[in-house]
Structures are given as structure tokens and as C-alpha cells.
Design goal:
The complex is a heterodimer of chains A (about 525) and B (about 80). With about 525 residues, chain A is of the alpha/beta class. In chain A, about 45% of the residues lie in helices and about 15% in strands. Chain A folds into three domains: about 25-135, PtsI, HPr-binding domain (Enzyme I, Chain A, domain 2), CATH 1.10.274; about 150-240, 3-Layer(bba) Sandwich (Glucose Oxidase, domain 1), CATH 3.50.30; about 245-524, TIM Barrel (Alpha-Beta Barrel). In chain A, a hairpin with a 4-residue loop joins strand 7 and strand 8. In chain A, helix 12 (about 355-370) crosses helix 13. The chains are: A alpha/beta (about 525), B alpha+beta (about 80).
């Protein structure tokens, strides 16, 4: 028995024989005349195109259809195929010419400094193999169902062509944002990345645990039996939970609990039905600011916020102002080289040092608040004065917009409660609502870094944390202010009962945890 | 360029498909003085790595040039039909 760790790219559990997929390297073919090679490539391109069109016709989800359409568009582009035909004219065999032309393109994508473009290299590789397969006359072997597929990388179209029922996927390359990972999550296929395939040579059987990010090779019978029990339980649990997804969350005693979602971008909303949520409890706006050369302007921010509130259709949407710093640096804005960034210039501390950045965001938020249930939340508030300065800036931004004749509204203003100094003196903060940021609040209360795995026992909700939560909930109830919890804790089923017992009745969770949390509430 | 992720795979597919429906030669650039890129080639369009917020310029030459430019601008303004 051997344990390997990887990165979970799609959750779930799978068990089965290991099937190693060789990269479909096209066998060398004998070279014919220039005219013959030219004809062979034209035929292979045509056959590959036909397959892709057929695949597009049976592909129902938008994400997958987009991947296939991209490949068809590439095939239709002479820019891609011309270098291969030139090489054939110069005397190359069709397969060598095709490989040369595609290698250039694939290298270009692979060396990009953008993760998005690097991930597209797999799409080009897929296309290369598909056409190459026709040239060599070998069609890539079908992927059987009920097995754990191990490969260096996997082409999206090969993923789509396989029946993944009871199967799993283990890749060496590819990150959690690759097309295959997106497809695997959408189809519920457990998947790990970052596992070196050479270690798996000659191994027969494995348990894929994408809950723990582990692969168990050649498990002994006890481990296997235990895993099968977990897997059966996981499945029946998922099936049972799914029934709760569309309904309002109610505890067994009939108490209505609102369950909202946390998002980091408008794109995440495409696959979520607004009727399944009580609102959006946290929009992390860092995504708008990260990985780009200049900060987003007011109009761009306005459009993004508007898209989110339009999706919510009157349900509350809480948008958090930029929470940069800590583990979320933004080049040119956050300070580099802080010895302890979690205790440094982050959240509102950073925003108040860059009022020009905060002002743009507050203006965009005031504009997006027209006719919407939009709320603004300030992160990392430590002193009441920080909140009041933000409130003054929000009012001033709205006054400026009105003077300019731009439609706007003043949204309600709340705060994240994540700094102990604020949590312990909550009555000093005149916020319209409070949202408990459990990740940071726990790490600050227990003086234990949240990114240190060996201290994970200290990252659990202990008595001090729960006492603080109870006091914030009580303060909110006495003063008619909403209290919610938007940290990772809210998404963990095992903590639902404890949080309900603290009096909490608004949870904001990861979208993938929505059904599970609603189901857990119903048991309490 | 309004699209969330810039001129990536799916917007590029839509752009080239629309451009190909016109007979005119169509080019675009992210600066008024170029460099200009053939809007009918997805390989070239993707190579531009055009980010979100870039200001796109279109130019066309041919019988349906005006209609082509209008249609492409409308596509960008509709956020490539991927928005809500």
C-alpha cells in the first residue's frame, strides 16, 4: 500500500483499476509523394472537424460546447494549418509537418505568463492528437468506465468522449482552473492534479480520495473496505442533500435560516439558480483588481456589480470593498516585504491609505445600488473611526454623483467582524450589519496562522470564538442589526449545529456547499 | 473590451465567426495606430492576448465594410452575448 498526495481539482471518491493513458503520440508513417501527403493532411483535418462537429451536437453544457467550438475555429483557421502545408511542399511527411506546426503553437501557449493561456495549451494538444490520430490511422483507445485514469495531461475532447460513471481522474499537469478540471467539477468526476505518473507505473489498483487530496495505491483489504463504506455514504449523502437545494432552509424545529453564497466573480453565478439562494452574503472584489496591469475603473466596476445585483433580482447582495493584503497582495498597491502581512496594512487599513482607489469603488457601488438590494461591507475594521471614515466617504461619493446628475443610491454600510478588537467591543461600532469573518477571527483569537497545517487543531472554533459569536449575535438582535457568518466555517456541515446554537441564523457559504449546509440545518 | 476575461477563447470564437460572415477584409487593434490583426483568424486574434478594458479599434475594407464594423462593435458592446 502506498499513499500519494495531490491537489484536489474536483471533489468526490472513486475506486478502481488504474488505467495509464499514453499520450497519443502519432506513430511515424511512411512518407508518400508531396501530393499524397497533402491529401492525407486535408483528409485528416476534415475527419477531425467532422468528429468535433458531432461532439458539439451531443454536448449539452455551455462550458464544454465552448471548448469544442474553440477547436473547430482553430481547425478552420488557415493560419494554423498553412505552416504544415508549406512543410509538406518542402518534402516533409504529413504527420511530421502537422507536429511541427502544432508544436510552435502549443509552445507559444505553454510559455505564456497567464495561467489562462497556459491552460489552453491542452486544447491545442487535444487538436494535435485528434488530427494526428487520423494521419496514423490509429484512433485513440476509448476510456473504459469505472476506472481511475492516470495521464500526464488529458485533452478536453477526450474527457468529453468518455463515460466517467464511477470513474476518476489523476493528472500530472494541469491546474484546478484547467478546462478538464472545470468539466470534472461540473460532471462530478473526482479528480486530482499534481501526481507524478511515473510512480504509478506497474500499479494495479487505487482509491482516489479527492476529499482529502489523496491517492491510495494497491490498498489492503481493510483500507479498501473502509473506503467503500465512505464512498457509499458519500453518495447517498449527496443524493439526500440535493433534495434540500431548492427549498428554503429550515431547522427541524421550524426555525427559518437564511443561506446565502460567497462568490469571487460574476462568472461563478452562471451555474447557480438564484431561486436556490437567499442572497449573496459576500462578493470578494479582489478578483477585479488582481492579475492585471492597472486597477479597474469606475465604469468597469459598475458593470460588474450591476451584473451581480441583476442576477440576484432583488435578493440582498453584500459587496465587500477591496480586501487586499495579507495573503492577497496586489502589485503596486499592497506593501511588499511586510514581515507579517496578516497583521499589516490590509483591508480597510490599505483602503484608507489609498482614498483614490476606495473612492472609485464607492462611487461604482453607489451607482450599482440604484433599485437594487446592494449592501457595502468594510473588511478588517479595528476601530469605530475606520468605519465612520468609510461612511463619510460613501456619503460624499453619493453627493458628488448626484451633483453630476448620475443616478445613485446610498447603500447600507456594514462591517466584517474579524479583528478581536472589534469583536470584543462590538457595541462601539455603529454598523448597519455585521458579518463574522471566521477564518481571520479564529486565527487572530488563537494566535495561530491559518496557513500552517500543523496548527490546524487551533484553527477550529474554540470556546473563546463561540463566546464572541454569541455576543455579536446578541448585540445584533437587541439593536435590530443583521448578523451573518461568511467564513469557511459556515460551509462546514459539522459546525452548523454549533453555530445555530449560538443564535446565528444567516449563513453565507461556498456555492458548492449550499445543498449540504441546507441539509445539515434541517437535521438540527 | 468589456468581457470579464479579455479576448479569450470564447469571445475570440464569436468575433472570428462574425467577421467571417462578411466579405470585407476586417482588422482590429487595441491602439488607433495598430498593429492591426486579421479579425477572421482565431490564431491571430488569440495571439494578441487582448486584456479586459482594452479599447478595440476596427477597420474594414470592402463592399460590406460599414455593416461589418457596426456588427463587430455591437458584438463587443453586447459583451459577446455571454453577459446576463
Amino acid at each position: 500500500m502506498l499513499l500519494l498526495t495531490g491537489i484536489a481539482a474536483a471533489p468526490g471518491l472513486a475506486v478502481g483499476p488504474l488505467v495509464r493513458l499514453a499520450a497519443a503520440d502519432t506513430a511515424h508513417r511512411a512518407r508518400g509523394s508531396v501530393a499524397h501527403e497533402r491529401k492525407a493532411l486535408i483528409a485528416a483535418l476534415g475527419a477531425a472537424r467532422e468528429e468535433l462537429v458531432a461532439l458539439a451536437a451531443i454536448t449539452s453544457d455551455e462550458e464544454a460546447a465552448g471548448i469544442v467550438e474553440f477547436q473547430i475555429a482553430l481547425l478552420d483557421d488557415e493560419e494554423l494549418t498553412a505552416p504544415a502545408f508549406i512543410a509538406i511542399a518542402a518534402g516533409d511527411a504529413a504527420d511530421a509537418a502537422w507536429r511541427m506546426a502544432m508544436d510552435q503553437q502549443i509552445d507559444d501557449y505553454r510559455s505564456s505568463d497567464s495561467e489562462y493561456f497556459r491552460a489552453r495549451a491542452a486544447d491545442l494538444r487535444d487538436l494535435f492528437e485528434r488530427v494526428g490520430g487520423h494521419l496514423s490511422g490509429s484512433v485513440s483507445a476509448a476510456i473504459p468506465s469505472g476506472v481511475i485514469v492516470v495521464a500526464d495531461d488529458l485533452a478536453p475532447s477526450r474527457f468529453l468522449a468518455a463515460d466517467w460513471n464511477n470513474g476518476g481522474l489523476v493528472l500530472h499537469r494541469g491546474g484546478v482552473t484547467s478546462h478538464v478540471a472545470i468539466l470534472a467539477r461540473a460532471r462530478g468526476v473526482p479528480m486530482l492534479v499534481g501526481v507524478e505518473p511515473a510512480i504509478l507505473e506497474g500499479r494495479l489498483h487505487a482509491l482516489l480520495d479527492a476529499q482529502k487530496g489523496m491517492l491510495v495505491i494497491d490498498p489492503d483489504s481493510a483500507t479498501r473496505a473502509e473506503f467503500e463504506r465512505r464512498r457509499a455514504a458519500y453518495r447517498s449523502q449527496r443524493t439526500a442533500e440535493a433534495k434540500y437545494l431548492g427549498a428554503d432552509a429550515k431547522s427541524a424545529s421550524g426555525k427559518r435560516v437564511r443561506v446565502m453564497i460567497n462568490i469571487a466573480g460574476a462568472g461563478e453565478l452562471d451555474t447557480i439558480d438564484p431561486a436556490h439562494v437567499d442572497g449573496i452574503g459576500l462578493v470578494r472584489t479582489e478578483f477585479l483588481f488582481q492579475g492585471r496591469e492597472r486597477l479597474p475603473d469606475e465604469n468597469e466596476q459598475y458593470r460588474t456589480y450591476r451584473r451581480i445585483v441583476d442576477w440576484a433580482g432583488g435578493r440582498p447582495v453584500t459587496i465587500r470593498t477591496l480586501d487586499a493584503g495579507g495573503d492577497k497582495p496586489i502589485p503596486g498597491l499592497t506593501l511588499a516585504g511586510e514581515t507579517n502581512p496578516f497583521l499589516g496594512v490590509r483591508g480597510v487599513r490599505l483602503s484608507l491609505r489609498h482614498p483614490e482607489v476606495l473612492r472609485v469603488q464607492l462611487r461604482a457601488l453607489a451607482r450599482a445600488a440604484v433599485g437594487a438590494n446592494l449592501k457595502v461591507m468594510i473588511p478588517m475594521v479595528t476601530l469605530p473611526d475606520e468605519l465612520e471614515r468609510c461612511r463619510a466617504m460613501l456619503a460624499q461619493s453619493a453627493a458628488e454623483l448626484m451633483a453630476e446628475g448620475t443616478p445613485c443610491a446610498i447603500p447600507s454600510l456594514g462591517m466584517m467582524v474579524e479583528v478581536p478588537a472589534a469583536a470584543l467591543a462590538i457595541e462601539e461600532f455603529d454598523a448597519d450589519f455585521y458579518s463574522i469573518g471566521s477564518n481571520d477571527l479564529i486565527q487572530y483569537l488563537s494566535a495561530a496562522s491559518r496557513d500552517a497545517p500543523e496548527l490546524s487543531a487551533l484553527a477550529q472554533p474554540g470556546p473563546a470564538f463561540l463566546r464572541v459569536v454569541r455576543s455579536i449575535v446578541a448585540h445584533g438582535a437587541q439593536n435590530g442589526r443583521e448578523v451573518s457568518l461568511c467564513g469557511d466555517l459556515a460551509s462546514e456541515q459539522r459546525h452548523v449545529r454549533t453555530l445555530l446554537e449560538c443564535g446565528l441564523n444567516v449563513f453565507s457559504v461556498a456555492p458548492a456547499a449550499l445543498a449540504a449546509v441546507k441539509a445539515a440545518i434541517a437535521q438540527c | 473590451m468589456l468581457h470579464e476575461v479579455g479576448l479569450h477563447a470564447r469571445p475570440s470564437v464569436k468575433l472570428t465567426q462574425l467577421a467571417k460572415s462578411f466579405s470585407s477584409r476586417i482588422e482590429f487593434a487595441s491602439a488607433a495606430d495598430g498593429p492591426w490583426t486579421d479579425a477572421k483568424s482565431i490564431v491571430k486574434v488569440m495571439k494578441t492576448r487582448t486584456p479586459k478594458d482594452a479599447l478595440l479599434h476596427f477597420r474594414a475594407e470592402g463592399a460590406d465594410a460599414q455593416a461589418a464594423v457596426n456588427a463587430l462593435i455591437a458584438l463587443v458592446e453586447r459583451d459577446f452575448e455571454t453577459g446576463p
